[in-house]
Amino acid sequence: MNKRVKEIIDKSYNGALLESQEIRELLELDICSEESFYLAYKARQMSEEACAGKAEIHGQVGVNSGPCSCNCAFCSFAAGNKIFNAQRIESLEFILQQALDLEEAGANAIYLMATAHLNFQSFLEMGQVVQRELRTGVPLIANIADFSYDEAAALRKAGFTGVYHAARLGEGKVTRIDLKDRLQTFEAAGKAGLILGSCVEPIGPEHSHEEIVEKMIVAREAKPGFSGAMRRVTIPGTSLSAHGMLGETRMAHIVAAVRMATPREIPGNCTHEPNVMGAVAGANLLWAEAGSNPRDVVDNTEKSRGYDVGKCREILVDAGWQVLNGPSKFFITK
Questions:
Q1: Is 291 or 332 the better-scoring residue by pLDDT?
Q2: Which molecular function term from Gene Ontology is one that the record holds (predicted)?
Q3: 199 and 166 Cβ atoms separated by less than 8 Å
């Protein structure tokens, strides 16, 4: 085994923070090399120790769909992609039932996801209803557009424990969103007492190691409850489709590198979409999905790309994980 690579991996495992160049060296490894398998082995150890051996499944309900002016090229809701041509908001009854079904199936947290088009007050009201009806104490998480401190405080008051938010690859280039807006949202969430979940995403073959490392560091500096990596899903006919899509083995390698780049005190390491390779390589968080989905081209992803809680559990068990019962440990209020 390459001595330099082993030293980098062991440095992280022993609690030291990796430098950008060291993280890049991990990303550059051949995915079928001895060093890559050692990386996955130590990343898995780190994840197991960080979460006491219990992986989590989080359930997400997409509450609306339709053309979005943020125009993220990788998103099926982008107005420019012309996939969803009319605005649609799911009924409150549908949203509530999907959330309760995910909870009953064993999801450790429930997310409500909305496009930037959805009125913020309407989202708050949905959240209040769902939070009131959840029965097991699982945290309610918001996955929405950028927001101010006042809006963050309103989310907290409405019963949200945390938010999912990411500074995406290609921000400001393949999206109409400025990176500084993302970072201001991170700050607003923290000041309001909302726990942040984040991720390096959406990763495609077009992204350089430098870009990926940059976003790893942005995510870790936000001190989230979890980090991780998500691949860009190719949406046929869109501008990014010519690049193709990364394979699950390559993504598992990146997931392991993210774990090594992330401080030990951050317990979660996610991969999306759910897959066994990623879970073997240190991912301890998967998502089940219902309703709308920015990686899908149908209204109800549970009938298409979206996995349910049972399938996510099968994947984790196949990868040798135990699955947490009860509320998430990644969104414990500080």
A1: 291
A2: transferase activity
A3: yes
Confidence of residue 320 (pLDDT cuts 50, 70, 90): very high
Amino acid in the structure at residue 233:
V
pLDDT at 334: 55
Which of 289, 242, 239 shows the shortest CA–CA distance to 82? Answer: 239
Strand partners, 55: 323
pLDDT number for residue 241: 94
Query: Stretch 153-166: mean pLDDT, rounded?
Result: 98
| Number of Cβ atoms within 10 Å of the Cβ of 267 | 22
Of residues 234, 224, 175, the one with CA closest to residue 200: 224
Which of the residue ranges 145-149, 236-240, 251-255, 258-262 would you say has the lowest mean pLDDT? 236-240
| H helix or E strand, kind and range, residue 226 | strand 226-231
- Strands 195-197 and 162-164, by their bridges, are parallel
Contact in structure between 10 and 42 (CB atoms under 8 Å): yes
Q: Which value, to the nearest 10 degrees, does the dihedral of the CA atoms of residues 255, 256, 262, 267 take?
A: 80
- Record the tokens describing residue 226, joined without a space: 């979890």
Domain 3-323 has CATH 3.20.20.70: yes
